[in-house]
Design a protein that fits this description.
The protein is mostly beta strands. It has three helices and twelve strands, in the order αββββββββββββαα. Bound molecules: guanine.
Length: 167
């Protein structure tokens, strides 16, 4: 898809371990020290970070979690479905897009410590979005579980977990 190649090139996007492509576009210079952060963060974190994130319909963003809330912003392309599972196993689905009459929303906050995955809705299309977190992103806070771990935790969501995990 030509638009996908153009976006990757224009914004210097690189593959993300969860699937899709990203580029960090903001990392605040200010730092929060460990004594001011909840103890599950080990070390300091920047105040906030923000990325561009590009997903295409031939793949998906696999279930993962981070410690902090993550704000998703819709920019262009196909609407994207976010699947969120709480630690208690409650599933919710949220459609990020700009057809507000159809119930799509331009911004959604995934709560911290929730498992979440994303899928572009339209076939042969892409979703271009932004993701902002505070405290700032650190791969130390990023958990990309094996399929089996999630299936053991949430057998009631096995079909969804099968479709949105890789191994
Ligand atoms: N930086 C690198 N990966 C990510 C991510 O998945 N989310 C956010 N917000 N920032 C990142």
């Amino acid at each position: 898809m030509k638009q996908v190649e153009q976006l990757i090139k224009k914004f210097d996007l690189i593959p993300h371990p969860e699937g899709g492509y990203f580029k960090e576009i903001y990392r605040s210079q200010g730092v929060v020290f460990p004594e001011s952060l909840p103890k599950e963060y080990q070390g300091s974190r920047n105040y906030a970070t923000s990325i561009y994130f590009l997903l295409t319909s031939d793949t998906f963003s696999a279930f993962h979690k981070i410690k902090q809330d993550e704000i998703w912003h819709f920019y262009s392309g196909s609407p994207l479905m976010l699947y969120v599972i709480s630690e208690e196993g409650e599933l919710s689905e949220h459609c990020i897009g700009n057809d507000f009459g159809k119930g799509q929303i331009p911004q959604f906050v995934v709560p911290g410590n929730h498992w979440f995955a994303a899928k572009t809705i339209n076939p042969d299309d892409y979703s271009f979005v932004g993701c902002t977190v505070s405290p700032g992103f650190d791969f130390k806070d990023f958990v990309l579980p094996e399929r089996k771990e999630l299936l053991d935790k949430f057998p009631q969501h096995s079909i969804l977990i099968h479709s949105l995990t890789r191994n």
